[in-house]
Structure prediction request, 269 residues.
Amino acid sequence: MPRSLEQYLRPGLKGTTFCPGCGHGILLHAVVRAVHELGLDRRELLFVSGIGCAAWIPSPHILADTLHTLHGRAVAYATGAKLANPKLTVIVVSGDGDLVSIGGNHLIHAARRGLDLTVICANNEIYGMTGGQAGPTTPRGAASATTPGGNPYGPFDLVRLVLGAGAAYVARFPVTQPRPLTDAIKRAIRTPFFSFVEVASPCPTQFGRRNRLEDVGALYDRIRDLSISRDEAFGRSAAELRDRIVVGEWTPEDLLLAGGGRVPGAPAC
Ligand SMILES: Cc1ncc(C[n+]2csc(CCOP(=O)(O)OP(=O)(O)O)c2C)c(N)n1
Ligand code: SF4
Ligand SMILES: [Mg+2]
Prediction:
């Protein structure tokens, strides 16, 4: 992390809590850079996370108020904090399992209510911390501790899920695109309603190891190769977009343009 950003890190940190090659470290950098570039006052900033490797992104690393809460309940705590002190900029950073599996109901209802929260979901397509179980974002066919023969189910499309639930701003970028990712986090924080950023963040230890992607470079190549911009995806069939990571930004107008149904550029499940 460059010197200019060290002021946002807790003193005494010796490295991060993440395995070598974990995408969550790159996401930590993007979050800190976004806060720096927005010039946010740390005293009016609150980070909230649940439980999981991704939930360690703000706590213990970022020098600001952090609530490291219960598994699946980060959005509920964030809602309470924002209602108690509306002046706070409240940013939830947590994992796909935490936010979308056990915490899925909190997520969609917070989007529906439209409270001014920013939720950043580190999606590594697996439960990393607890040994690599499949979750609702695990790709069809992927191996995990609970699906050694391949996951029989397709994943949620988080963009469509959260936008359909009422979010004002939704974005998806991989950690391999740190500049657009940082800009999306800034836009999400500036959005005065519910906003959501999905971040494709590779997990070498659980997802890579179980899916013949032990080489960290190959795991990052996979994310890079699967990513396709929203503009490039537009007009392609669901079959062509299957398994691709459509990246970009979406607002509720995209739903209106699509007649309330399909979000342009988002693959059908
Ligand atoms: C109520 C409850 N159920 C289950 C757990 C076990 N648990 C802790 S973290 C986790 C999954 C975390 O996955 P994710 O949010 O995707 O984060 P990652 O580790 O992949 O970054 C689970 C199942 C728990 N701590 N509490
Ligand atoms: S288990 Fe996976 S998600 Fe957790 S720190 Fe290691 S590489 Fe990252
Ligand atoms: Mg995960």
User: Anything to note?
Assistant: The longest strand covers residues 89-95. Confidence is low (pLDDT under 50) at residues 260-269.
